[in-house]
Amino acid sequence: MIGLYSSLVVFFLLQAHQSTAVFNITAAEPLFPSQTLVSSGQIFELGFFTPNGSANRYVGIWYKSMTPSKIVWVANRDTPLAHSDQSAKLKIGSDGNLKLVDKQQNIVWSTNVSVHSNNTTAMLTDGGNFVLQDRNSVEIWASFDDPTDTLLPNMEIGLNNRTGERRYLVSWKNDNYPSSGYFVTGITWETPPQLFTWNGSSPYWRSGPWDRSTFIGMPEMDSSYFSGYVLQQDLQQGTAYFSANTKNNSLFAYGFVSPGGVLTLIIWDYGSKSWSTNWEAPSNSCEVYGTCGPFGLCNSLNSPICRCVKGFTPRSKEEWNSRNWTRGCIRETELNCQKNTSRSASMQVKKDVFVQMNRMKVPDSAEYLKDIGDEGGCQSWCLNNCTCLAYSYVGTIGCLVWAKDLIDMQEFSTAGQDVCVRVAHDNTGMSIQTRLIISVSTMVGIVFVGAAIFSLCKWRTSKRGTNNSNLLLNFTLNVLKDKTGEMSLGNSWKDQLKQVDASELTMFSFSNLLHVTNNFDATNKLGQGGFGPVYKGKLNDGKEIAVKRLSSSSGQGMEEFKNEIILISKLQHRNLVRLMGCCIEGEEKILVYEYLSNKSLDTFLFDSGRKAELNWDIRFQIIRGIASGLQYLHRESNLRVIHRDLKASNILLDEKMNPKISDFGLARIFEGTQVLLNTHKVVGTLGYMSPEYAMGGIFSEKSDVYSFGVLLLEIVSGKKNTSLYYQGHHFNLLSYAWQLWSEGTGLDLTDEAIVHTCSTSEVMRCILVGLLSVQDHATDRPNMSSLVLMLSGESELPQPRPPTFTFKSEIPSHDVKSEWECIFSTNSITNSVVDGR
Ligand SMILES: *[C@@H]1O[C@H](CO)[C@@H](O)[C@H](O)[C@H]1NC(C)=O
Ligand SMILES: *[C@@H]1O[C@H](CO)[C@@H](O)[C@H](O)[C@H]1NC(C)=O
Ligand SMILES: *[C@@H]1O[C@H](CO)[C@@H](O)[C@H](O)[C@H]1NC(C)=O
Ligand SMILES: *[C@@H]1O[C@H](CO)[C@@H](O)[C@H](O)[C@H]1NC(C)=O
Ligand SMILES: *[C@@H]1O[C@H](CO)[C@@H](O)[C@H](O)[C@H]1NC(C)=O
Ligand SMILES: *[C@@H]1O[C@H](CO)[C@@H](O)[C@H](O)[C@H]1NC(C)=O
Ligand SMILES: *[C@@H]1O[C@H](CO)[C@@H](O)[C@H](O)[C@H]1NC(C)=O
Ligand SMILES: *[C@@H]1O[C@H](CO)[C@@H](O)[C@H](O)[C@H]1NC(C)=O
Ligand SMILES: *[C@@H]1O[C@H](CO)[C@@H](O)[C@H](O)[C@H]1NC(C)=O
Ligand SMILES: *[C@@H]1O[C@H](CO)[C@@H](O)[C@H](O)[C@H]1NC(C)=O
Ligand SMILES: *[C@@H]1O[C@H](CO)[C@@H](O)[C@H](O)[C@H]1NC(C)=O
Ligand SMILES: *[C@@H]1O[C@H](CO)[C@@H](O)[C@H](O)[C@H]1NC(C)=O
């Protein structure tokens, strides 16, 4: 359907074989067609060229030695010279501007800027920028400010909403015709901005919103070649600029919009000495803007590729069935909130509900609500405003809502974000809870995984097989990969599963759990997390249990659910909460844990009335227990696990105040050497997230070490990491701890409630271990095994490096700073991004 722009190459006939190379253009020395201007490192070349088969002559820039070459910039694309014109020249005019004149001395192109001095020079940089500068080397004009169809590293495209300036890429008419074509690629002025390609004035492709490291709609965008895709929006200045910068100057890459409208990233491959395509957009019809129409959902793996959002039906069945999806879908049932008030007054109004769709390229025309700090707030804002048709809470952005028809939605196999679409209550055909959200896109997955977990729970009674944890690892990894749920597992999953020793998991019936929790009575509620409420229950044999009823409205989807079950059923350690069983019936997904009478650490630590109950000995025991549990997760268990959401509220305490790590919903398994994982979805809790994870989405076991360091300092000080934020002159607990320690007054950090009971040497050791764990660079942080040794006093303690990220004024680069400020600019600093319990 989409003609990919096959020839990446633009040849030119008159490459002036005998051309002489010059290094600058001055008033005295113009550039003639027999010459080329070359960058000092011989990387780029500027000169006159004639496209294959054309009668026109242009001035342009191309790669000098990397053939086949690409014309990356054209000066006079819309005012060509005649190919026969041998007397044309590119000169510096008497006003200091660059001018391209034909043989009649008519100016066909000019830089046309106001120049104070007429003593100017033009030269070409090794980055491909053609620059006009004055005698003091001050840049007066640059080709980077006037792009053609190509984006080079360190070049920016974007706009200034104040001045109306647009610096966009405009395609060639065709491969041999540089004149301005139909397609324009630029950045939109919205928050967050999107990369957009228009065909004339109609949208042709969009990237989805920028999530601070990548675009939500471009899961294939591979940043490994780049130090970064950078998109900076300055609301005050009204500017938004995007650039893609290579890691080092010897990596050559460029992006361009082809005459057929495909935005393409090309990279020079040193191995094969040729250009290769890194990504293209759109690369299939699903990516073309609005293929499935309003409220239509595109999945390139399905056939047909379009379907309606649950609760919607094709506007025209005939058109839809003939695969013309452009008119999209309409609601099956009017929204309850839109119903006529006179009627609703007399009837009991049912609230609308949300249908959740996972792994989505979110629809176009999002509105960003900047004052909403968590997913719950986002949902209730949307629920209470009838014009709100959908919402999505993206950890790195915040709350996005939609008031216009939802268009250009795409479903991915990996990456993407969850979108919750408002539908009338009746549409779901279910009436369990008002906050019910059905995960449409994982329906198949639910059936499948439900079966798998059911099997897992059931097989507990079967004969103990070989304790083959590799098998479970394979199974788990396959499930987690979850590209196409069933397919990746093939038919063998059943066989694999049969051999798994599913330990002591019990399958509970829903009615039994209803009974033991007294119908989930509010008085039995232990707490409420983002993933659902937790209730206390008492089994017939008198044993107490904690029952976590996963609300499907929460962040914990099927993914997290199966993850947690499989992980935790296999992990057994005295400092990890033990999963006793599960229940899957209908829409109910329930986990049953051992009950821990003293609830979570934060209920003591941050409560001025109760913190004294945690004397130093208990705190030290808790610290060492957590360290030991983490060490087990990282190193000793057969499955190597990164927890990813370690925090005080996830540490539960038993009757003897032994700590137990809970909430594995976000945990990820890693294999031996593969310690750096990249995730597009940054989840976790601000304040505990390591810089590399919060900013780059990169996590490793060292991200857990960072969280552990924060937690340790919190336990010692009895203060929340984020609570000191903005107060006084301290950035947060970490910088405060660092300052005290570096001034030699580290003990002042100690919680006043325990200052008289503590062992100063142990406290000092803990503070130092904490500071070592929160160092900026993951490689500087010790691993958990070393930390356990350090805590026990069996190991030397090195000196920590100052945690610069925690000092606002010392944040190293401009980009990094704005990232942090953006993250913390809302009032949500203490909230979980996905609030686990
Ligand atoms: C122009 O290039 C020549 C060498 O090609 C160099 O000697 C000269 O200094 C350059 N002039 C300016 C103004 O850069
Ligand atoms: C120029 O175009 C002709 C016909 O389209 C083609 O055969 C030839 O290979 C092209 N030459 C170059 C250098 O691209
Ligand atoms: C620069 O401008 C001055 C006067 O404005 C003029 O006399 C001189 O010829 C100009 N130089 C060039 C190289 O055009
Ligand atoms: C130069 O710019 C002025 C206004 O800024 C415009 O009127 C003029 O036509 C431009 N000249 C060329 C050659 O583009
Ligand atoms: C232009 O500036 C250069 C130094 O940058 C100087 O050597 C030269 O004489 C100047 N030319 C004119 C015409 O002013
Ligand atoms: C600038 O932003 C406003 C809204 O903030 C918008 O209405 C206007 O169209 C924008 N201008 C441009 C040139 O994009
Ligand atoms: C772009 O728009 C033009 C004019 O509306 C149309 O003829 C052409 O088919 C469009 N191209 C694509 C790839 O959609
Ligand atoms: C830059 O990239 C090249 C090619 O991959 C590599 O050989 C070189 O070591 C890199 N240089 C630096 C400073 O990273
Ligand atoms: C699809 O339907 C629209 C609206 O009814 C119509 O304008 C368009 O021509 C149809 N497209 C095709 C390819 O049939
Ligand atoms: C509201 O309902 C009443 C009675 O059912 C009806 O007469 C009226 O037209 C309705 N108004 C709207 C705006 O639908
Ligand atoms: C409801 O949502 C619309 C669209 O987002 C917004 O313009 C309007 O101000 C909201 N109303 C209220 C009361 O918040
Ligand atoms: C796990 O998977 C790998 C590769 O997919 C395979 O080589 C290995 O045999 C599997 N292990 C088991 C126990 O099935």
UniProtKB/TrEMBL annotation:
EC number annotated for this UniProt entry: 2.7.11.1
UniProt membrane topology term: Single-pass type I membrane protein
Catalytically driven reaction(s): L-seryl-[protein] + ATP = O-phospho-L-seryl-[protein] + ADP + H(+); L-threonyl-[protein] + ATP = O-phospho-L-threonyl-[protein] + ADP + H(+)
Domain spans labelled Apple: 337-420
Signal peptide: 1-21
Domain Protein kinase: 520-797
Keywords: ATP-binding, Cell membrane, Disulfide bond, Glycoprotein, Kinase, Membrane, Nucleotide-binding, Serine/threonine-protein kinase, Signal, Transferase
Domain Bulb-type lectin: 22-145
Leading EC class: transferase
Gene3D superfamilies, per the entry: Bulb-type lectin domain, Phosphorylase Kinase, domain 1, Transferase(Phosphotransferase) domain 1
Broad class of the protein's primary localization: membrane
Compartments, record wording: Cell membrane
Family (UniProt): Belongs to the protein kinase superfamily. Ser/Thr protein kinase family.
Protein known as: Receptor-like serine/threonine-protein kinase
Organism phylogeny: Eukaryota, Viridiplantae, Streptophyta, Embryophyta, Tracheophyta
